[in-house]
Specification:
GO terms for molecular function: hydrolase activity, acting on carbon-nitrogen (but not peptide) bonds, in linear amides; peptidase activity. Residues 174-198 are annotated as: Disordered. The record marks 202-203 as: Cleavage. InterPro entries: Ntn_hydrolases_N, Peptidase_T2. Substrate binds at residues 231-234, 254-257. The strands form 2 sheets. Strands 1, 2, 3, 4, 5, 6, 7, 12 and 13 form a 9-stranded mixed beta sheet that branches. This protein has a 4-stranded antiparallel beta sheet with strand order 8-9-10-11. β8 and β9 (249-255) form a beta hairpin. The protein has one domain: (Glycosyl)asparaginase (Glutamine Phosphoribosylpyrophosphate, subunit 1, domain 1). By secondary structure, it is of the alpha+beta class. The protein has helices spanning 23-45, 50-63, 107-117, 125-134, 148-159, 257-262, 265-276, 280-294; strands at 6-16, 83-89, 95-101, 122-124, 195-201, 204-209, 215-221, 242-244, 249-255, 299-305, 310-311, 318-325, 331-335. The radius of gyration is 18 Å and the shape is globular. It is built from 8 helices and 13 strands. The structure holds aspartic acid (ASP). Residues 12, 68, 201-203, 221, 223-224, 233-235, 254-255, 257, 299 line the site of aspartic acid.
């Protein structure tokens, strides 16, 4: 079999603040998305698996401070980081996930390790970190995940005593000075974010179809700003934040995690294709535009099927997203 490969990625969904947007700021997001799509495209062009392509794309998204996963992840109510990730292989239905990890540099690599080297699917907290360390994955000082921008965002959320999902605060000012006495990692400030960071669901994810006709999906997140310690969203839950089955599709979600869990959102796309016989696009649109809004679920998802169809629906004003087919220029977008 020699399928035309395709990879799609997302970097979170949310409310757009057009007033805060300069062309340069917007360009930074497009460039980051494009570079990561090109990297994923190269993995697939080399004949590697969809599983390898989504692992690499999400690893790069985790390392990019523009997105809420890995370095640049949002902070909990205690000012710490608790990261979640998952991955699924549509060929075998093997899956791996970690949640509430504080020191694993790339949670998606830990999830992949769980998939490949354990009989389990989900490891949490200290046990997940011990498992990752035992398999040679890099652990970092938690300060590695912090950025000035996320710290200011967290302070804003604390002042308003809200978690970020229904926060109405203003867009981060990229030029705001670093707080005196802060031990936040020093680096160039983030640009104004095209999507209001206070109303953004910043999970990252990837889905891919490889040259052998196999599908895979991966998702990674810092969760939601000012979340309670120990809170786990949909991202590390197979079926809610991530799902892949060669028989139907591969899906990665982003949005209000509690609602995506209650709607079993990612699996529902696959289930609708299998049981109702509808197309990928119709199934995904039903989940995002009809079912999630019934319980105020906000966000979106990216999905690909075994024929190479791609759909990227969202019910918020924007979603950082893109896809790249073999031999074609990557397509990236932010707004509706
Ligand atoms: N779904 C993620 C969570 O609830 C948040 C996000 O997508 O940004 O943890």
């Amino acid at each position: 079999m020699n399928t035309t490969t395709v990879i799609a990625i997302h970097g979170g969904a949310g409310t757009i603040v057009r007033a805060s947007l300069s062309p340069e700021d917007e360009a930074r997001y497009h460039t980051a998305l494009r570079d990561i799509l090109l990297a994923g495209q190269r993995v697939l062009a080399d004949g590697a698996s969809a599983l390898d392509a989504v692992t690499e794309a999400v690893r790069l998204l985790e390392d990019c401070p523009l997105f809420n996963a890995g370095h640049g992840a949002v902070l909990t109510a205690d000012g710490t980081h608790e990261l979640d990730a998952s991955i699924m292989d549509g060929r075998t239905l093997d899956a791996g996930a970690v949640c509430c990890v504080k020191r694993v540099r790339n949670p998606v690599l830990a999830a992949r390790c769980v998939l490949e080297r354990s009989d389990h699917v989900l490891f949490a907290g200290d046990g997940a970190e011990a498992f990752a360390a035992a398999h040679g994955l890099e652990l970092v000082d938690p300060a590695y995940f912090r950025t000035d921008a996320r710290h200011r965002q967290w302070q804003l959320a604390r002042e308003q005593q809200r978690a970020m999902l229904d926060h109405d605060g203003a867009t981060l000012a990229a030029s705001a000075p670093k707080d005196a006495g802060s031990n936040v990692r020093s680096e160039a400030p983030l640009p104004h974010e095209p999507i209001d960071p206070n109303r953004k669901f910043g999970t990252v994810g990837a889905v891919a179809l490889d040259a052998h006709g196999h599908l895979a999906a991966a998702t990674s997140t810092g969760g939601i700003t000012n979340k309670r310690i120990g809170r786990v969203g949909d991202s590390p839950l197979i079926g809610a934040g991530c799902y892949a089955d060669d028989a139907t599709c591969a899906v990665s979600s982003t949005g209000s995690g509690e609602m995506f869990i209650r709607m079993v959102a990612a699996y529902d796309v696959a289930a609708q294709m299998a049981y109702r016989g509808v197309s990928l696009e119709e199934a995904a649109a039903d989940v995002v535009m009809n079912r999630l809004p019934r319980i105020d679920g906000r966000g979106g998802l990216i999905a690909v099927d075994a024929k190479g169809n791609v759909t990227l629906p969202f019910n918020t004003e924007g979603m950082y997203r893109g896809f790249a087919r073999a031999g074609a220029e990557p397509v990236t977008a932010i707004y509706r």
